Amino acid sequence: MERELKLELLQDQAEGLIGLPLLSSCSVEPPHEDRLVSTYFDTPDLSFRRLHASLRVRQAGEHFVQTLKTSGTQHGALYEREEFESAIPGNTPDLGALQDKLAEGTALGTLLRESDLAERLKPIFVTDVRRTVLLLRLPQGDEVELAVDHGVVRANDITEPIRELEMEIQAGEPAHLSAFALQLLDAVPMRLSRVSKGDRGYALIADEVNRAVRAEPLELAEAGSTEAAFQCIARNCLAQISRNERGVVNGSDPESVHQMRVGLRRLRSALDIFEPLIACPPALQSELKWITGALGPARDWEVLANTTLRDAFKGAPQDMRADAVLAAAKATAADARQRAAQAVNADRYTRVILTLNHWLGGADWRHGLDEAQRAALTGPASDFALTTLRQRQRRLLKRGRGMARIDEQRRHRARIAAKKLRYATEFFGSLFSANKVRRYRRHLARLQDDLGWRNDMAVAGTLLLRLGTERQELAVGCGYARGYIAGCVSADRQPLRRRWKRFKAASLPV
Fold first, then answer.
1. What average pLDDT is seen over the chain?
2. How far apart are CA 108 and CA 47, in angstroms?
3. H/E stretch holding 153
4. Are the CB atoms for 197 and 159 separated by under 8 Å?
5. Which long-range contacts (CB under 8 A, 24 or more apart) does 433-438 make?
6. Which residues form the signal peptide (predicted)?
7. Could you give the CA distance from residue 196 to residue 203 in angstroms, rounded to a whole number?
8. DSSP classification of residue 306
9. Which terminus of the chain, N or C, has less C-beta within 10 A?
10. Distance between CA atoms of 452 and 261, rounded to whole angstroms?
11. By C-alpha distance, which of 4, 227, 41 is closest to 127?
């Protein structure tokens, strides 16, 4: 299993990075440099890519090494993935050597055993880099291979530069990589690397879309501790955040912003749930709130431009200037999306993720706990989950009393309570009966979705009021759309009352 941290240099600063006193003080031996030429192979229909894998043959001097890598998992800047490597005599893959390493029942194992695979394999792109390698021993004793790559990826006549820092843990704790990277970041400007060299090459030969990524289902160990449950939940949230960064920075799908924001909200909700036992540093909490807020305007304006206004202006009179209002909303959404991308691409965000990785891996929250807290932290996650679900349900039932009649401020508080209960149910659902969880989540999801829709409508009304005030020529159209929104919200009173009644009758899945 390969475990590495990847950062992207913003400038040609490889020499300056290698010469840092911080590195020389940790170096086990002098740095050495190699030229690495890697040829990536795949079939015409990109069979390996479709299985989220890459196959390459790397030449260093007179030596050839073939490597098959899976996409693995990404948690912030940390990557964990399977890697199957073997020396071969030349620049052509040896499928037999790989077949010995992968079982027949796996998708990759099946592909490698296809009788005509060798005939279909073709070189599809090449990376050509100068790699400077240092072997480090960090102050905590961790053994790390640090590599700085400077070169290009080439497909046909198209090239893209490569400027990367990779730190692979050889022995020790991956969390220490993040702490060390934060120190490097003080001296050299870098940002999170969201793509591998293989990703860069495939992007040159295939029209790949940066798709939005939802959270993976959570499976907590039945006999696991409360602390282990938190770490699993936090990694799940961080993976959702990380896997949507590319879509926010380089894509145009509004869902990428939404899913990254959902990942951040899930993480902040998890921190809130476990706060009595696991205290997140206030500075880190503040930074997580910052990046969540930085994505908010893009999400709000994209919902307004792509959904709400299209519905509002169906069949509208021509004098409402619907096209002009829609165009103005889209332009504002595009500006907000650009600001969101800049925030995710910023040094500040890189520091947030590295700090989060270090905090989650270091488990410093254990210090300062009293005996009762330590017992709860190491106790069964199922007990903690049951207490949490009961507390959150009681809070929602209290805040939502008279749901269809309460004012917007109280309904907003009920919406937050519903969202937190829904996240908690998703986090801990695997610890309880699947059928009971499914029934409970169905009623809760319908209620929370309705409350979330109402919040979107309230936000849309505020945005339209602002737009109509700033652009007087659009005031009539914005007022028309606000009237449509008000009508929809009014018509939802009875459906909301029914959903609330059904939720109150639902039993906790315990």
1. 94
2. 9
3. strand 143-155
4. no
5. 433/509, 436/507, 436/509, 436/510, 437/509
6. none
7. 11
8. I
9. N
10. 14
11. 41
CA 111/CA 332 separation, integer angstroms: 47
Q: Is the pLDDT of residue 74 over 80?
A: no
CA separation for the pair 457, 488 (Å, rounded): 9
Query: Each residue of 282-307: pLDDT tens digit?
Result: 999 999 999 999 999 999 999 999 99
In the predicted structure, residue 81 carries a pLDDT above the cut 90: no
- Please report which helix (H) or strand (E) contains residue 182, including its range: helix 175-185
Which one, of 147, 195, 138, lies nearest residue 171 by Cα?
A: 138
Give the pLDDT of residue 317. Answer: 92
Give the side-chain half-sphere CA count within 13 A for 157.
0
Number of Cβ atoms within 10 Å of the Cβ of 11: 10
51 contacts 108 by C-beta, under 8 angstroms:
yes
d(CA 408, CA 279): 32
CATH superfamily of this structure's domain 226-505? CHAD domain (1.40.20.10)
C-alpha span between 428 and 384 (Å, rounded): 9
Please tell me the number of Cα atoms within 13 Å of 167 on its side-chain side: 27
Provide φ and ψ at 78, rounded to 5°. -95, 130
Q: Specify the amino acid at residue 271.
A: L
Element (H, E) at 160: strand 158-171
Contact 180, 141 (CB under 8 A): no
Residue 70: enclosing H or E segment and its boundaries? strand 63-70
Outline which parts of the chain fall under CATH 1.40.20.10: 226-505
What is the fold, at CATH topology level, of the domain defined by 2-205? Hypothetical Protein Pfu-838710-001 (2.40.320)
Query: What is the C-alpha separation between 24 and 490, in angstroms, rounded?
Result: 68
Residues 14, 163 contacting (CB under 8 angstroms): yes
What is the location of CATH 2.40.320.10 in the chain? 2-205
Give the whole-angstrom CA distance, residue 337 versus residue 301.
Answer: 9
Name the residue type at position 369. Answer: L
How far CA 469 is from CA of 316, 332, 351, 451, in Å, comes to: 21, 14, 38, 27
Does the pTM surpass 0.85? The reply is: yes
Give yes or no for a contact between 162 and 175, defined as CB atoms under 8 angstroms apart: no
